[in-house]
């Protein structure tokens, strides 16, 4: 959406993956793309691929090599620190451990936001870093309703950044209705899902 690339969008039931999808991606992981008869998956890798492949469209990484590396460092922070904390906060059942996970989530979010120049991570340029955190910001209401997350726990530029992300047209166009998210994430909130992410969180291992 941001790079205005033509594509055909298809939703996949994560608990009932059709043969057509598995033919494209035997691992059954989403998101995935089929491009010129070849398949790729994993969100962060797909983002980088689209940036590399479609160089004539809107850039989502800076030209400066140092700044590009800096972007990748903070994408890595979000993937290795923030995202696992998000899922731990959802899955954990014991109240004391929920608070511990929530505190870790807030800490990793604050650490990231300290690097946000405003209004976006790089300043005026919307980038792959903002895109990395956007899906989780869009779903933050789940933690607000079920795990005690509040904006004031984070403070700083968080309320404005959160609002800008949620109102970004590309985010809206690539997000599902709340109803569908809640049907899906109820399994995480009860810690009943058998997804690879859930299994890793239970085992205390890095996310796949």
Automatic annotation (TrEMBL):
SUPFAM superfamilies: GST C-terminal domain-like, Thioredoxin-like. Residues 1-58 form the GST N-terminal domain. Residues 64-195 form the GST C-terminal domain. Gene3D superfamilies: 1.20.1050.10, Glutaredoxin. PROSITE patterns: GST_CTER, GST_NTER. GO terms for cellular component: cytoplasm. InterPro entries: Glutathione-S-Trfase_C-like, Glutathione-S-Trfase_C_sf, Glutathione_S-Trfase, Glutathione_S-Trfase_N, GST_C, GST_Omega/HSP26, Thioredoxin-like_sf. It holds the Pfam family GST_C. Belongs to the GST superfamily. Omega family. PANTHER family: GLUTATHIONE S-TRANSFERASE OMEGA (PTHR43968:SF6), PTHR43968. This is Glutathione S-transferase. It comes from Adineta steineri. The lineage of its organism: Eukaryota, Metazoa, Spiralia, Gnathifera, Rotifera.
């Amino acid at each position: 959406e941001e790079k205005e690339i033509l594509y055909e969008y298809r939703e996949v039931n994560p608990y009932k993956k059709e043969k057509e999808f598995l033919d494209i991606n035997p691992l059954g992981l989403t998101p995935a793309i089929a491009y010129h008869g070849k398949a790729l998956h994993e969100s962060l890798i797909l983002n980088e691929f689209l940036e590399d492949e479609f160089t004539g469209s809107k850039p989502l990484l800076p030209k400066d090599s140092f700044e590009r590396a800096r972007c990748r460092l903070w994408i890595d922070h979000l993937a290795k620190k923030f995202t696992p904390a998000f899922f731990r906060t959802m899955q954990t059942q014991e109240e004391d451990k929920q608070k511990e996970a929530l505190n870790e989530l807030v800490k990793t979010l604050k650490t990231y936001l300290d690097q946000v120049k405003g209004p976006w991570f790089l300043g005026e340029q919307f980038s792959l870093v903002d895109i990395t955190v956007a899906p989780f910001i869009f779903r933050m209401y789940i933690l607000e309703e079920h795990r005690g997350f509040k904006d004031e726990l984070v403070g700083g530029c968080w309320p404005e950044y959160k609002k800008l992300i949620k109102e970004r047209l590309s985010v809206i166009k690539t997000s599902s209705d709340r109803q569908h998210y809640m049907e899906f994430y109820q399994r995480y909130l009860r810690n009943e899902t058998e997804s690879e992410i859930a299994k890793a969180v239970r085992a205390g291992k890095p996310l796949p």
